[in-house]
Give the backbone structure.
Amino acid sequence: MKDPCPCGRNATFEACCGRYIGTGVPAPDAESLMRSRYTAFVRGNAAHLLATWHTSTRPPSLDFDAGVKWLGLEVKRHTPVDAAHAEVEFVARSRLQGRGQRLHERSRFVREDGHWLYVDGDLL
């Protein structure tokens, strides 16, 4: 497949997360937003990460560790709480200086003005 999407769905970047990154098109649900945020981490796209982070918890800027190689994403669970709130549990794997790392998080999302936004998460 030409240019597979880093988020793990069986689609090209353009047909998957590329629809939401830098386009202004809102993700249809919290899981799609979370996948696009993972893809933004893989591609070093701080603008997308900041634009999709709720203002109550958004940092002023982001720095990427140049040594991190993202290896994959597994979505464990997408739980809509109500029309404007959802949780996504995921595991993101990476490697830094030859050592494997695993980020297991339950993230909280809120929908405002038709856009899903990342609020915060708990490490599991």
